[in-house]
Specification:
Blueprint lengths: L8 E2 L5 E6 L12 H9 L14 H7 L2 H15 L3 H11 L2 H17 L13 H5 L4 H8 L8 E4 L5 H6 L5 E5 L2 H13 L6 E7 L12 E4 L4 E2 L2 E2 L10 H8 L4 E6 L18 E8 L2 E10 L6 E8 L7 E8 L14 E5 L1 H6 L2 H7 L3 E2 L7 E3 L8 E11 L2 H10 L5 E5 L6 H12 L13 E8 L2 E9 L1
Parallel strand pairs: 2-5, 3-4, 3-6, 4-5, 6-9, 10-12, 18-19
Antiparallel strand pairs: 1-2, 7-8, 9-11, 10-11, 12-13, 14-16, 14-17, 15-16, 17-20, 19-20
Length: 467
């Protein structure tokens, strides 16, 4: 793979330096686990400020050596043994303080990464870098958009979570202003056999422009934290959203990762010049994990809601189900609850595709402002959870309790949409009464679900069984 002409000088091995890209500036992590604090105290040094264990560029180089791998293996074994302070003393006897710090920082980083990436035990990172990395399922789903790209610039690549995923589909120019993160990326590319697919480059997005002769697509995940504080407004990100859009305009297709909870009204007007745009929201493991603005040839539909779920046929693989269409226009009718209640995945509501989902379920809304749907038909869908409606009533605690007792309910889970009630407090109160001595209800039964919401403007409680 040829390096882009703009790469001016070698940085590390096959890495080039650019004048420009964003950095994944490391957020300040407080409340680090007590293991890190023990080590910071025992091996006090410049890389353990305020109980944080970080690695630097030299650490990453050393950790790849025979000695570094031996220290990491020893740290892994000792720290997994459970007796932490003796383990730290043993490491301090066998290795120089900087080496022991680096090995333990890597072990803790891999531990934080283990729930996100299958290859976590092969990768190089510290905990801060790991916490900024997307889950592999999300990263690989988004990376698939770049399959037809010639060369992709990943702006603010960090330790390489997204770049490593994209590299499986297209060559990557991975750009960051943090030299240590780039050292991690380079080591990780080697570890996964992707070194010939990734070109790490040092630079700053505020001044860098993709080389037009090589790069035809761009990915940007702006840093949304600074000194531990989350920056909600897009112009406070690094790079600011306006700058990310400027960079995107220089290539044929781009994806910009946004905060999942972003107010879409805060987005600048895009697409008015005829450039196709798409907003995709991704749900995974019950939560909203990503929001991406796709531009140019990478845009497909105006809105997309994607649900990722494990592939039963292949261990470690995931299936993506996507719902697409125009954003809601209020076409779905409203009516009181029927036999079934559907709770749409968060990505469906954020994408504004309730009106697209409703006809698939032969469903209606129970309130014009609430995302719950209802139907008399039991439909299986990856885009919503289904509940069997047992009863529903105007919300009042006493009447709700009497209804639950009449239905012989022994335990409840309380959820809400559009209700001001403290669900945790109500759940504790109801369960304390339902489990009172002398009641004949089955204490081992699956919890009944109480949904606090509105039906055509009125506050109600809907008592449901899980399907």
């Amino acid at each position: 793979m040829l390096a882009p002409a703009c790469c001016a000088r070698p940085l590390l091995c096959s890495r080039w330096s650019l004048v420009g890209a964003t950095g994944s500036s490391s957020p300040r992590v407080t409340g680090y686990d007590h293991l890190a604090n023990h080590l910071a105290d025992y091996l006090a040094g410049p890389h353990a400020p305020h109980g944080r264990l970080l690695v630097n560029t030299e650490d990453v180089r050393w950790l790849q050596t025979v000695e570094g791998r031996a220290a990491t293996a020893q740290a892994t074994a000792l720290l997994h043994a459970g007796d932490e302070l003796p383990a730290l003393r043993r490491l301090a006897r066998d290795w120089a303080p900087a080496e022991a710090r680096a090995a333990v920082a890597l072990v803790l980083g891999r531990r934080a990464l283990s729930g996100k990436l299958v290859e976590a035990d092969q990768l190089f990172c510290d905990r801060e870098a790991a916490e900024q990395t997307s889950h592999d399922a999300v990263a690989r789903h988004l990376a698939a958009r770049f399959a037809a790209s010639r060369y992709v610039a990943d702006i603010g690549c960090g330790m390489g979570g997204d770049a490593l995923a994209i590299a499986r589909y297209a060559p990557v120019l991975a750009v960051d202003r943090d030299e240590t993160r780039l050292a991690m990326l380079e080591a990780n590319a080697v570890a996964l056999g992707l070194a010939d697919r990734i070109t790490p480059c040092l630079g700053d997005a505020t001044t860098w422009t993709p080389p037009a002769d090589t790069v035809d697509a761009l990915w940007c995940d702006p840093a949304r934290r600074a000194e531990g504080e989350r920056r909600m407004r897009p112009e406070g990100w690094s790079p600011p959203l306006s700058r990310a859009l400027e960079l995107a305009a220089t290539v044929g297709g781009a994806g910009i990762k946004l905060a999942p909870g972003i107010d879409l009204d805060e987005l600048p007007e895009v697409g008015e010049d005829g450039v196709p745009t798409e907003m995709e929201f991704v749900s995974f493991e019950g939560g909203l994990r990503a929001a991406v603005l796709w531009l140019g040839r990478l845009a497909r539909e105006p809105r997309t809601a994607t649900v990722l779920r494990p592939d039963d046929a292949t261990e470690g693989a995931y299936v993506a189900d996507s719902l697409t269409g125009e954003p809601d226009d209020g076409a779905t009718p409203t009516a009181p609850p029927g036999r079934y209640l559907y709770d749409p995945e968060s990505c469906v509501g954020r994408a504004g595709l309730i009106d697209v989902l409703a006809p698939r379920l032969d469903a209606w809304k129970i309130d014009s402002e609430i995302a719950y749907l209802s139907s008399d038909e039991a439909m299986d869908t990856p885009f919503a959870r289904r509940f069997l409606v047992l009863d529903w009533l105007p919300f009042a605690e006493r009447a709700l309790l009497e209804t639950l007792q009449r239905l012989n309910v022994s335990r409840v889970d309380v959820m809400r949409r559009g209700s001001p009630v403290d669900t945790n407090a109500l759940e504790r109160k109801l369960n304390a009464t339902l489990r009172a001595p002398g009641r004949s209800a089955d204490a081992t039964a699956t919890a009944t679900v109480v949904v606090l919401t509105r039906v055509q403007g009125a506050r109600v409680a809907i008592v449901c069984a899980r399907e």
